Amino acid sequence: MRPLFHPAIEDVRPEAILHALADPVRAAIFARIMGAGFVEACSAVSAVGDRVIPKSSLSTHFKVLREAGLIRSERHGVEMRNHSRYDEVNARFPGLLIAIINAYARSSAPRAAAQ
Amino acid sequence: MRPLFHPAIEDVRPEAILHALADPVRAAIFARIMGAGFVEACSAVSAVGDRVIPKSSLSTHFKVLREAGLIRSERHGVEMRNHSRYDEVNARFPGLLIAIINAYARSSAPRAAAQ
DNA sequence: TCCCATAGTTCGGAATTACAGAACTATTGA
DNA sequence: TCAATAGTTCTGTAATTCCGAACTATGGGA
Predict the structure, then answer these.
(1) Pfam families annotated for this entry (chains A, B) (predicted)?
(2) Which of A19, A106, B57, B103 is the most exposed place for a label (fewest CB within 10 A)?
């Protein structure tokens, strides 16, 4: 198990962020990490919506988010803690993450929520 | 040649927009359409940066942008005019498009441009 | 009207990427 | 040392992407 790779903030690319968050499952995971006090174990995300995500897929999703520069993962005993890198990313790309999270919130709302 | 499909604004999904703009070539094309008076023929985009794009790929890129709801394409004689749907999209997902375009502008700048 | 040039689209095969089950590794606790 | 838990990696299959070649559509002459 090779050590986890985290890009430096100046190496974070918009295309990687957009690609990572273009998947609704990953966007939901990221939104949850941002919302839930900025820390969450992988195992806490066994399902998104009513869809169960196999753990190999989950692992890949976290890897994509990590390598896009959106989260920082560190081992804590047997589990993984995932911190959002929101502040760093927002400083580099102002407004990007909020706009994306809001867009998903709007589109999943029945009609014009997140107003 | 089937008629071009344009989604209604309420059917536009954030994942489609992010997927469309996660490709730097498409993002550059969209930025150019937005910048260049909101109208541009496909053939005006033979290259992005120093990279020449084959026309079959170009056609697909425009199709992805169109079906994501980002542009509206209409035939004008022998050529195609591509209008940005910025206003509609921005009304539905406020700040999303600007943030994305700005992010690309920042990342391609040598150091902290688009300030 | 017929033909040609221009602008885009569609087809098809190769290359790449994504998904998820199975096997593996790492850590903790009994 | 063994079992349990949490994640990762491997591997084969499925889905996407890319781009050259062939095709379609429109307009402008001769």
Answers:
(1) HTH_20 (PF12840)
(2) B57
